[in-house]
Amino acid sequence: TAGRLFSAVKGAAAEGEKFPVMGVRWRSSLTLGEKEEVNNKNSEDGGNKEVVASYWGIKGEEVKKEDGTPWKWNCFRPWETYQADLTIDLKKHHVPTTFLDKLAYWTVKSLRFPTDVFFQRRYGCRAMMLEAVAAVPGMVGGMLLHCKSLRRFEHSGGWIKTLLDEAENERMHLMTFMEVSQPRWYERALVFTVQGVFFNAYFLAYLASPKLAHRVVGYLEEEAIHSYTEFLKELDKGTIENVPAPAIAIDYWRLPADSTLRDVVMVVRADEAHHRDVN
């Protein structure tokens, strides 16, 4: 796969085409309906094209919508879509009382300051960073509970799937905001760094105290709600253009076809409020 991608880049460069590295559309983000053509350098004439329709080079199972039209996404399926509950209480707050509560609360507050300084009011890229981090805790918690269930030969009470679903939901937030924001190269590099540090720190915290780890996530989600509320204010003021909602968001949250970015931020904020309550 790497060789084929390199060949495609090299071929485009030889032909004088514009091929920015940060603009490469990776196969994992392609829809099932899209086909990526790369030059097959092993062919006799060197000009044949090879069609790749999925990340692994294997054609996925054909899935259709309820109306019979083909389902075009390979990162989620129709039965995984839903309508967000916009009536959820956005102002709910768990007042820190114990030492662990206060430790979790001030840890999250201390992390907010450098984020505000770095991103300021670039809420699209800010959301990208937030979701790249927020998708980690559910996966770490689900993984550790999975291993605990195996070691103890006991059920998890449904928490493994709950946490993995949370991680998947946060990942879909990221896939959505990647369609509307154009992160710079150093912001992408920052995601690598922050995710690496946060994953290991959260892993150790969960081993030491799952309660502390979940409290951290709960307060992190409260900050996410605040950030998305500010995002909405900027959209309403016209500072940020209220562009049409990405197709992936319309299908994932079952939004009307004429939905806008503001509608997407509304449902994402509702998701964050739900994760806050769970944690």
From TrEMBL:
It is a multi-pass membrane protein. Pfam families: AOX. One of its GO terms (cellular component) is respiratory chain complex. It catalyses: 2 a ubiquinol + O2 = 2 a ubiquinone + 2 H2O. Binds 2 iron ions per subunit. GO terms for molecular function: alternative oxidase activity; metal ion binding; superoxide-generating NADPH oxidase activity; ubiquinol:oxygen oxidoreductase activity. It is an enzyme of class 1 (oxidoreductase). Keywords: Electron transport, Iron, Membrane, Metal-binding, Mitochondrion, Mitochondrion inner membrane, Oxidoreductase, Respiratory chain, Transit peptide, Transmembrane, Transmembrane helix, Transport. GO terms for biological process: alternative respiration. It is found in: Mitochondrion inner membrane. Its EC number is 1.10.3.11. Its cofactor is Fe cation. PANTHER family: ALTERNATIVE OXIDASE (PTHR31803:SF3). Homodimer; disulfide-linked. Belongs to the alternative oxidase family. This is Ubiquinol oxidase.
